[in-house]
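Raw record, unedited: Molybdate transport system regulatory protein
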Amino acid sequence: MTSKKKASAVLLRPRLYIGPAIAIGPGKIDLLRAVADTRSIAAAARSLGLPYKRAWLLIDSLNAGFGRPVVDTTTGGKGGGGACLTPLGQRIVAAYDALERRLNAEAVPELELLRELAKRPAT
């Protein structure tokens, strides 16, 4: 979905709390998507306007919460370092995407009402 379409649409972007240790929302999911696209935590952070340290802390919180890595990293060297989603990271993004699609499909009447309310002048 393009950012122009997102800006004009009314969308649900859920934030999930899975027990006391895991919180997943649009920011972490967008970061995981960016890591998958750029194959780099630093490049993913730059693309989202995040400091590298913040991006790493978000990924580290997911790693800790799930008890295993969501991103695999390789250290720099002649060819440079890199990062990619682990199978767990890929499954998290896929599950979140499916949930987001389902919620938005099921909530069409309510989302349309909210969009209409936003267009009306105050009475």
